[in-house]
Amino acid sequence: MIILYTLFAYFLVLLLISHVTGGKADNRTFFNGNRRSPWYMVAFGMVGASISGVTFVSVPGMVLTADMTYIQTCLGFILGYFAVAFVLLPVYYRLRLTSIYTYLDYRLGRSAYRTGASFFILSKLTGSAVRFYVVCAILQRFVLDAFGVPFAFTVVAMVGLIWLYTRRGGIRTLVWTDTFQTLCMFAALILIIYNVARHLGMTMGEAADLVASDSRSRVFVFDDWMTRQNFWKQFLSGIFIVIVMTGLDQDMMQKNLTCKSLREAQKDMCTYGFAFVPANLLFLSLGVLLVALASKEGVALPAAGDELLPMFAATGRMGMTVVVLFTVGVVASSFSSADSALTALTTSCCVDIWSRPDDEQLRRKVHLGMSVAFVVFILLFHSLNSTSVIDAIYVLCSYTYGPLLGLFAYGLLTRRGVSGRMVPVIAVASPLVCFAADSLSKQLTGYVFGYELLMLNGLLTFAGLWMTGKRHAGRGSRNRAEG
């Protein structure tokens, strides 16, 4: 019951923040926070929103199969955030965009615009469903199953709570709730590490020495080009993962576009870009310490890496204090990504699909409708999931975010136009070709594609647009309307 009490208190704080920040909110407040957000608060909150409950549960378990090689991807993240800050943000601020996909309308026309927004909606529903599935599944398994609560009810209740505290203030509320949730997440992580070290009979310094000397602390892989853990495959993938999953993602960019100026938004982006290496190093170090604790206590390691942290932290094996910390950490990280996803989906539908950014009644209906869709996608993933959660997210996004990468690259790097009828065809065909190439590669050569599928997908979309496009760019639909 202590977990339920913890959740109840946590949600009371979120509702209080929502009440204070959501007063007199209109669509402008909901979509862009009136562009008054302090950059340092956006930066701190974005760390929690980017990490999500998936990282909290899955990354510690990565050491079981991949050691600490995930840090190679995080190093690529840094360059990716700089690219977003100094290439994409200036474009978005110059056009004063509410939805970043409006850029495609200005540059390539309505067909590219609607295609890009549609792929975002599909990608965000899919990715966010995977992330939020983590917290729902953990609560179900370790708490609610004992009371006979159906999983579907758990999902509806949790999504309903997110809808409740985001429905008024939107993005302005999220800047403040994400700050609170990021603080809770890191406090929980550090205190869990402290408790694990204590159960090992070590000080924090001794625990750090154990991690540094452990064979699972290997970070770099340069000698095997066939593995997913190869440095260059991970590093380059990390760059492009950030470009598409942050720079081309309305969810991540919407908060950055609430800053007062481009310069503040760039400071925000670069600041939290550097935070991912130490943050993920903490998660991976926790994984190494948990493996050492399992060895000390004679406990068999789980078959799935996602089970490593819950096996110790959610079962009461290390005491009720750790159970509470684990609950707070998972809920904080999961909700900070799920609530912003719901807000971004609402924004994209109102601005990009229906082109009615000032209709408050439509916004409320869409917000509720996206909440229902969110529930459906979570339940769908629950019925189909058979892979590691974090790998599932990145593999799915390699297919759904690839066309966005190709569309934006084509618009930014060329002066050519597009064939409007061919844009959606190319955007659908590119992921299908990638899937076929991945399957054939495994069968014929044994080569395993990793996150580089994202780059291949974007390249195919770019090539398709080039081959079917026009030599000289036409004027986007926004420009035509203004002309």
Automatic annotation (TrEMBL):
Cellular localization per UniProt:
Cell membrane
Query: Which branch of life, at top level?
Result: Bacteria
Q: Which PANTHER family match?
A: INTEGRAL MEMBRANE TRANSPORT PROTEIN (PTHR42985:SF47), SODIUM-COUPLED MONOCARBOXYLATE TRANSPORTER (PTHR42985)
Protein's UniProt keywords contain Transport: yes
Q: Which family does it belong to?
A: Belongs to the sodium:solute symporter (SSF) (TC 2.A.21) family.
Q: What is this protein called?
A: Sodium:solute symporter
Query: How does the UniProt record describe the way this protein sits in the membrane?
Result: Multi-pass membrane protein
Which UniProt keywords are listed?
Cell membrane, Ion transport, Membrane, Sodium, Sodium transport, Transmembrane, Transmembrane helix, Transport
Enumerate the GO terms in the molecular function aspect.
symporter activity
Q: Which GO terms describe its biological process?
A: sodium ion transport
Q: Does the keyword Nucleotide-binding apply?
A: no
Q: Where are the transmembrane segments?
A: 38-58, 70-93, 147-166, 173-194, 269-294, 314-335, 366-384, 390-410, 422-441, 447-468
Pfam assignment, any one: SSF
Q: Which GO terms describe its cellular component?
A: plasma membrane
